[in-house]
Every structure is written in structure tokens, then in C-alpha cells.
Amino acid sequence: MVASSLKLQDLIQEIREAKTQAQEREVIQKECAHIRASFRDGDPLHSHRQLAKLLYVHMLGYPAHFGQMECLKLIASPRFTDKRVGYLGAMLLLDERQDAHLLITNSIKNDLSQGIEAVQGLALCTLSAMGSAEMCRDLAPEVEKLLLQPSPYVRKKAVLTAVHMIRKVPELSDIFLPPCAQLLHERHHGILLGTVTLITELCERSPAALQHFRKVVPQLVHTLRTLVMTGCSTEHSVSGVSDPFLQVQILRLLRILGRNHEESSETMNDLLAQVATNTDTSRNAGNAVLFETVLTIMDIRSAAGLRVLAVNILGRFLLNSDRNIRYVALTSLLKLVQSDHSAVQRHRPTVVECLWEPDASLSRRALELSLALVNSSNVRAMTQELQGFLESCPPDLRPDCASGILLAAERFAPTKRWHIDTILRVLTTAGTYVRDDAVANLIQLIGGAQELHAYSVRRLYSALAEDISQQPLVQVAAWCIGEYGDLLLEGTCEETEPLQVEKEEVLALLERVLQSQMSLPATRGYALTALMKLSTRLHGDNNRICQVMSIYGSCQDVELQQRAVEYNALFRKYDHLRAAVLEKMPLVERGGPQVDEEAKESKEVAQLSEAAPVPTETQASKLLDLLDLLDGPSENAQHPPPLDPTPGDTLIHLLDLPCAPLPPAPIPNLKVFEREGLQLNLSFVRPPGTPTLLLITVTATNTSGGDVTHFICQAAVPKSFQLQLQAPSGDTVPAQGGLPMTQLLRILNPNKAPLRLKLRLTYDHFGQSVQEIFEVNNLPVETWQ
């Protein structure tokens, strides 16, 4: 049986010549039977050939687990040909989930102790590919000895194995600290690249290692300067850029070493400026080095001029023909817009041009950045650009674009008329894509601007006459015509073109809305109510309105039927009360836009600061106190004891008419997450002017020894709520109790229903990516009652 076994080349040829999958399976099953028989017979001369064939079968996706023990036998063999195939089989067929992998620990230890470079290389490759935590702990001393071997081949593989060990067992970092300092003096490209990678892993996982390697920053700066200015061997140059892989790895390490450390950042400032100005950007390798330089500049405590240079580099990336580079630039600028807003503003025209990119991912990222760049000084120009983009953007971008324009107009509107015009244009262009609260917000805005009632009703009437397909626009127009229909017929508005409208035309337009197949039940309710209100706003006969109400008194929609029946009752039984019942709506009190709230809060903070003496304290504590004042009272603050409501005191308070109402009781803070030193707390504020609005400040603190980077907090609420996430204060939570990261959540709860919150956290901590999804159901009742 063994004699008829095929050679590896013949097996490959026969498998390739199989016409069907059934023929291929037949060939493989027959050969696997020969391989099993050979393993049972224990043929030492041909075992490595049989295992090589089995590995090829494994690569094709067929089961090969019966060859695991044969791998162990070949690894223990003294012949190099057997060891080579045995180690290859171990890397392919074994992993740490199987107990059999522990059986080769002793063989690897013996091979590492030999002086044969090829055998040591095989053992190190296998250990770095499938070594478990137990194997790493047992073999770490042997690997540490090989780091200082004279052979560059063995040292390079030992460094890579050490990287794997640190990732598996971070507590082994103390063993590899001493050799790393010596290996940094290496001239060999592979060893130096592996050493920088090893130091990076050590610094990300050990605060002690981070402090230790900050001493080698000058040496790393010298190495990188040599690469940039004089270059290295042409063997490792890519497109004229000297060893870009080593440059990128050194820049990543410098970013870790310089983060939150003034002295190290100062040492590397000049070097980063040299790299940023001397790197060739005509090739992709140079762009990679330059982008890593920008990330390093932004992550350390660099000079202000250097940060502006980094933003300008990203601005040049926006002009690159490569879409990937443009996407990276937009993503990086979006992260920097909070910390370096003025520098990013200089590239606003280029960002706006990226809106019309055919690539959907580029267009979406450009939209997010454009909305983040809107402020009070450029709101008119930016809104005009965004409205032009809204008219031609893909359907999947319209909801985000429309909502972003409405939010920007609410925050930075220069005048109420401009605000109304902006919302009307959005509703006309993409009314079906706007948020659910857009109708209520515009009604409140128009109702509060008495001087613009005539202007608004004329604009809305003209827009409604042209298009009744945009349901939010139709609802606002119907409400406005019902409230201010008398102003529509007067024709006294000087701010619009002369418009002569007759009563019959207005009634016909509302009837058209009622009869349209595109009208939603809610839209028909608006139109029905508008017709009823016009019976008191417009002079003349109301028979036409009564007829419409009679028709809808038998409507299949229960809501419309109930309205029509009640309105008919007003006409027939309570006609003397109809004028009083249908009077104009009073001004709706609403919370001002976010700018007004922030200004009010800032004014209160200033008054508190003037009233109480401020003790001398550090800048960090001042910032924390400021956050406490804005977010709510601190837990340690002392409150006056409540007054005893005795009858005498009650009478005194009743007589004391000018007294102000008591402020609402503070809502207690809530800790919702804690893991490895990272803690997430929620603080709550309900503005007195808008009781349905809840402001939640998410505060992330970090007491561990390593920074939490790329921190993203996302939230979701039930459909009956409306959630708006403000931009966070940053994406890094500094280690050892540094300044916290904060993010504001605005939740609108019109029904005052019990609040449930679902949070998703993604971040990097100690070199590992973490994602947590959890639900918060224990929110204080004060947040929604």
C-alpha cells in the first residue's frame, strides 16, 4: 500500500487534473488512506514526505488533524529535513486551543539551545506563530538569550518572537527591557525595525517601560534624522523614500513616548518639522511617512506652528488624486476640528469641493466635516453650499445633510427671517428626509416672530401651491394658513412680491391637500384644522367649509372623523363659541437655541465667579470646577438645610411676594461603566425652560497606567425619544487621572416616558481594541418625570 503512494508533485498534478469535485475527493481520500497507513507503519525515512502531502491536503481545506502527532515526532527527530517539515506542520495544524501544542515545548527549548542557526530559526518561527501563554512563559529566558546572539539572522527572529510574547503575556516586559537598549544601536534593517516594534509593544502595555524608554528619545530622533537627511542603503528604499517602513514605525513610537510629556515632545519638534518639509509626496511611500508625521504632531505636545503645518499637510492631501489619501485627510481633519478649528477653517473651500465626489464614502466624510466647520461667521456661505449639495446629493446622504443644515441654522442663525428662509428651502428640497421635530420647530419659530407672520404665510402659500408632495412643508403651510390666513388676503406685506389671493383659492388649495393621495393622515388633520380656523379668519359664507366637514364626518380614519364631527358640532350647536375657540394660538414658549443656552450658562458662571473669591489652584482643577458648574452641582458641594415648613414660616413666605421660585432639586450622577481603570459617569441637567429636554454629560476618566485612545461613545434611545450627540472633547482619555473626556447628549422626551439608554464604547487600551455594548435602565426618575 505504501509503495503505491504518490509523490507530492504527482499528487498535485492528479488533483489539478480532476474534472469534478467528486474526482478530487476520491483522489484525496485514497491518498489520505496511504498516508495513515504510512504513519501506522512508522516509516522514518518517508514520514516527512507523507506529512508534506498531508499539509497540501490541509491547504485545500480537507481534514488533516490525524497528522498532529506525526508533527511532534518529526520535530524531535535529529534530521533537519524532518524538523523543517515538522515545524511547518506544527504551525499549520496546531494552535493553543489544542493540548497537543504543549508537547513540543521541550523540543523547541532544546532546539533553541543548539548552535545551528537554521534549527533555531525554525523553532523561533514556530513559537512566534502558535506559541501560547504557557509556552511563552516557559521559553522567555531562552529567547532573551538569543536577542544578543552574534548571528543577525537569529537576532531578527528572536526580536519578532519577543513581540509575540509581549502581546501574549504583557507581564514578561521586564525580561526584554535591558536587551532593547543595545539592539537600538544595530545597523541591520530587520533587527532595528523589529526592535522598534518591540519597544512600541512594551510602551503600550507597561507604564514602567514607557518611563524607561523615554530616555532613548534622543537616540530615536538621531536615527530618524539620519534616515531623512542622509538616507540608508538603497536596498530598503521605496520610490526614492529611504526605508519608509522603519520611518513609520519610529514615528509611531515617538508618538507614544511624547504623549503627555513636555520634555520628550520638545526634543522631537525640530525633527518632525524636518520630516514634514523634506519628505517627497509624489509617491505613496512618502505620503505614508507624512501622514504618520501628522498624527505624531497632533498627538504630542507640539508647538502651535507645527500643528498648523500638520493641518496644512492634510489640506494638501485633499488635493491628491488618490481617493484613499483624500479620505484619510478628511477623517483626520474631522478629528482635529475641535482642537484646531481656525487652522482647519483655512481649508474650507477644498472641503466643500469634496462634497461632490462620486465616491459615497468621501462625500459622506466631507459632509460631516463641512457641518463641523459651520460657525456664526460663515453660516450664510456654508449653508448656501450645503443647500446646493442637498439638491443633488444621493438619497442616503439627504437625511444627514438636511438635519445638519437645520441644526446649524438653529445654532448660528443671524436673523429670524434668514432662519425661516433656510428651513423653508430645506423643506422644499428634501422635506421627506428631515427630522420629526422639524415641523414643530418651524411652527414655534414662526409663531414667535410676530413681525414675520405675513411674510411667512405668503412664502408658505406660494411653496404649497407649487408642490404638495413634501409632507413636512405641507403641514407647516397648512398650520400657518390656518393661523394667519387673514394676513394672506390683506396683501400688505412689503417684503415679498405682490400676491393677490382670493378666499376661494385658499380653500381650494387646502381641499386639494385633503384629496391628494400623497397626503398622510397627519397632514390631512393639519389641513382640516386650517379650514376650520379660516371660518373665523376670512369673511364671507362658510358653506363650503361646512360641506367639507360633513364629508369627513364619515371618514374611515378615526382621527379625521373625530375632528370633523367636533367641528360640525361647533357649527351647529356652539356657533356662538366658535370664534373664541378658534382664536390664534398664543406664543409657544420654547428653549432657545444652543447658543443662547451656552451664553446663559456662561453668564451664570461669571456671576458665580464674581460673587465668590477664587482660591489659587492648578489649571486642571479650574477646568474640572468649570465642568462641575456647567454640568450640575458637585457631589461634595454643601447645600443649605431645608426649611421646616411650619405654619408661621408658610405665612411669611406667602406674604413675601417678590421671592423667586425654588430651584429644582439636583439630579444625582450615575456611574454606568468601569473596566481596567476606565470609568464612565453620567450627569444630568433639565433646563427649566424646556422640561422635555434632558442634557446628559458623559464623563470618561482613566486611573490606569496607560492612555485610552480612539475612544468613541455612541448612544441609542427608543423611537419615542429624539437623541442628538454633540462632538466629544477629544478621543483620548489620559492615564493616571488626567483631564477627563466629556461628551454632551441632548435627549428630547415629549411623552415623558421612562428613559432607557443603550451605549456602545469602542477604544484602544494597552494595545488591545475593546468594544462594549450595554444598556442603562437604572436612570434616576428625575430624568423623565
UniProtKB/TrEMBL annotation:
Its main location: membrane. One of its GO terms (cellular component) is AP-1 adaptor complex. Keywords: Cytoplasmic vesicle, Golgi apparatus, Membrane, Protein transport, Transport. It is found in: Cytoplasmic vesicle membrane; Endomembrane system; Golgi apparatus. InterPro entries: Adaptor_Complx_Large_Subunit (IPR050840), AP1_complex_gsu (IPR017107), ARM-like (IPR011989), ARM-type_fold (IPR016024), Clathrin/coatomer_adapt-like_N (IPR002553), Clathrin_a/b/g-adaptin_app_Ig (IPR008152), Clathrin_app_Ig-like_sf (IPR013041), GAE_dom (IPR008153). It comes from the Eukaryota. The keyword Oxidoreductase does not apply. Belongs to the adaptor complexes large subunit family. This is AP-1 complex subunit gamma. It comes from Ovis aries (Sheep).
